[in-house]
Amino acid sequence: MDIKDKHILSELQSDGRLTNLDLAERVNLSPSACHRRVKSLEDTGIIDKYVAIISARKVGKKTSVFVQATLDNQRRETLELFEHAVEQVDEIMECYLMGGDSDYIMRVLVSDPSEYERLHQDVLTRLPGVQRVVSNFAIRSLFRRTAIKLG
Predict the structure, then answer these.
(1) pLDDT tens track, the chain, 151 positions
(2) Do 116 and 65 form a contact (C-beta atoms < 8 A)?
(3) Cα dist. 73→6, 58, 65, 77 in Å?
(4) What's the rounded Cα separation, in Å, for the pair 108 and 137?
(5) Domain spans of the chain?
(6) What pTM did the predictor assign?
(7) What is the four-CA torsion angle of 118, 124, 126, 132, rounded to 10 degrees?
(8) So what CATH class is 3-43?
(9) How big is the chain by its Cα radius of gyration, in Å?
(10) Which fold does the domain 57-137 belong to in CATH?
(11) 118 Cα distance to chain centroid
């Protein structure tokens, strides 16, 4: 990946709806060379997918909760069952396997604390292998980055 590829990626992270012609102009390449580079970035998986970023607040999802889950054991089958189950829960926006006090940390997005209470009781505490769940409510979001600095 060279400086031109990084420039292409930076532009696409700012505006994923750029036409190839506009992108080529911004990165100072011919449209055909630009298209080849974008295709290569897609084929190698550097560009994973294109998405629209939706305002959670404007669609009524105002509450972010960071949930730490501790499992009752570390067996591979337990981890796999848990990981498969959390992928099925639409409110879980992100999930990470952790080192440290908890096994997983998840970012959950809900409309309000009562919706989270239902999710906690009916879903999170019943996930495979869960021994303990600790919830931390975000008071206010300062910022959220979607672009990766490429240097």
Answers:
(1) 999 999 999 999 999 999 999 999 999 999 999 999 999 999 999 999 999 999 999 999 999 999 999 999 999 999 999 999 999 999 999 999 999 999 999 999 999 999 999 999 999 999 999 999 999 999 999 999 999 999 8
(2) yes
(3) 42, 40, 24, 10
(4) 10
(5) 3-43, 57-137
(6) 0.88
(7) -120
(8) mainly alpha
(9) 20
(10) Alpha-Beta Plaits (3.30.70)
(11) 23
Residue 68 · residue 105 · CB < 8 Å: yes
Q: CA 113 → CA 6, 41, 101, 123, distances in Å?
A: 41, 41, 25, 15
125: left (phi over 0), alpha (psi -120 to 50) or beta: alpha
Q: Answer yes or no: are the C-beta atoms of 72 and 55 closer than 8 Å.
A: no
Q: How many CB atoms lie within 10 A of CB 116?
A: 21
Provide the token pair at 130.
């869960």
pLDDT tens-digit map of 14-53: 999 999 999 999 999 999 999 999 999 999 999 999 999 9
Give the SS3 label for residue 135.
Answer: strand
**What is the torsional sign of CA 151, 55, 23, 26?**
negative
pLDDT at 151: 81
